[in-house]
Amino acid sequence: MPEFAPHTRLRGVIRQVRAQLQINHDTFGPSEVASALANTFGVFHDPTVLRSSATFSADHAKWQQLVAFATESPDYRLICYTVMNTQLQAVVEPTHGSLPTGCQAAWDGIRGSLKKKKPRLEVARLIDSMTNRELFHGSDGFTSHASTLEVLSLVSITVLTIVYLVVAAATFAKDEVDTLLLGAIPALLSGLVALVVAWRLHRKGKIRWSSK
Hints:
This protein is of the alpha+beta class. It folds into 2 domains: 7-139, TATA-Binding Protein (2-Layer Sandwich), CATH 3.30.310; 144-203. The chain has helices at 30-41, 49-52, 60-63, 99-113, 142-146, 149-170, 177-203, and strands spanning 7-10, 13-24, 67-72, 76-84, 87-94, 120-128, 133-139, 208-211. Strands 1, 2, 3, 4, 5, 6, 7 and 8 form an 8-stranded antiparallel beta sheet that branches. The protein is elongated.
């Protein structure tokens, strides 16, 4: 997982990196979203946060009318605004902590706030604020967790073991099937366990980041 400090040095230039999250959900009005977020994060919307934001400070007066919820912690700054009654945009900026860690904390809070409205993380991006270039893409989907090299390797071992057992049972080891199965249990379980872990990470909403 990428670990960006509040200011990241790339090719000798200090650059700011921000995260952009797009969350789709069942119909929910802006005022309801603001109330739900305030209840979960335990703080009221703080419009002064916009003045501290590298993304919003230049036009903070205009954004005052559009932002539904803004808060700042020692680790990250979170600013949320609604695009429509079924979509929330969230910008996460690091203050003194890791951006991916702050992103996960923000997403956990948003998921909890909108739980009854079935929130879905449609887009997660880490963006170079200087060039607006996407540096990393994130997802909490099952496929993103199941497609890691570690999981694919274990699943491949399980599949190859099954193929071997089928061939062996039908040809040269017809009388030793029980022994073969007993010896193959670790290989058979490894892929299953890896997929279960990937599913649990997905269900917990853990974001996995990959380079663009």
